[in-house]
Amino acid sequence: MGARAKRSELWQAAAGLLLRADCLCCGRLVGLDSELHSAGAAVNGQLCEDCGAQLQQQWVRADPPVLAVPVFAAGAYGGVRRALILAMKERLRPAAFVVAARVLEAGIIHLAGRAVVPDPRWGEVVLVPAPSRRQAARRRGGDVVSRMCHLVAERNAGVQVFDVAYMQESARDSVGLNRAERRANVSANIRVLRPAVRELLRVSSESARVVIVDDVCTTGATIAQFATVLRANGVTVAAALVLASA
User: Fold this and answer.
1) 129: β partners
2) What whole-number distance in Å separates Cα of residue 24 and Cα of residue 244?
3) For residues 142 and 11, what is the distance between their CA atoms, to the nearest angstrom?
4) Going by C-beta distance under 8 Å and a sequence separation of 6 or more, which residues neighbour residue 12?
């Protein structure tokens, strides 16, 4: 091998090292030459093929069902979905938000296939992030679910996002609470932003379908109570989408 060929090989090896990153879900090293599709293609070099494939599984009806509104999940909480959610909420990796947004887009298409909402290419879909505590959102540089929803809207002209509610700081941590306690906690501490709700009501009355979005559904209490609050303000919710059901 000549000197020029050796230099070329060394440059290629160095570039391969520089342009490699750990998969945001499993930590495996991946490179820019990996062949990824759908969610993975959006962050080439930061999501391995195996994790990308797992995130493309068929959406399912969440269990337990929420009587107030049908809830659909990208899958069970654990494995790749748990890792993706933690990459968003705890590690704040930008690529995680991009991947989550692609997963959420697939959820909207799933709802469209069930005639729950229109296909956003030809109709209007409104995403409403589930309420969270403002202090927690500030620690993360903004509400993670809202950020994910806005990334979907940036890519789809038929999708809008309305942040219409938040939780008071006095709200208890939901860990350890049963379904009734969680719902009572949400009911006592949820606060709606009236101007935003009025605008949401105007948009939804013009044939746009409203979908609540959250990262995880455990008992369904938060989604159920939020849907009830929206209904009390005149807004009908078509469904809810979550990245994982626990």
Assistant:
1) 213
2) 17
3) 40
4) none
Query: Hey, where are the domains in the chain?
Result: 17-56, 58-245
Q: Point out the residues of the chain with pLDDT beneath 50.
A: 9-19, 33-38, 40-42
Architecture (CATH level 2) of domain 58-245: 3-Layer(aba) Sandwich (3.40)
Q: How many CB atoms lie within 10 A of CB 208?
A: 20
Can you tell me the distance from the alpha carbon of 50 to that of 54, in angstroms, rounded to the nearest whole number? 6
Q: How far is it, in rounded angstroms, from Cα 94 to Cα 50?
A: 20
Measured CA to CA, the distance from residue 119 to residue 28 in angstroms comes to 35
The count of other CB atoms within 10 Å of the CB of residue 170 is: 9
Helix (H) or strand (E) holding 71: strand 71-73
In this structure, the strands spanning 237-245 and 159-161 are: unpaired
Alpha-carbon distances of 27 from 45, 49, 211, 226, rounded to whole Å? 12, 12, 32, 35
Say what the pLDDT of residue 47 is.
86
Helices and strands, counts by H and E, the chain: 9, 10
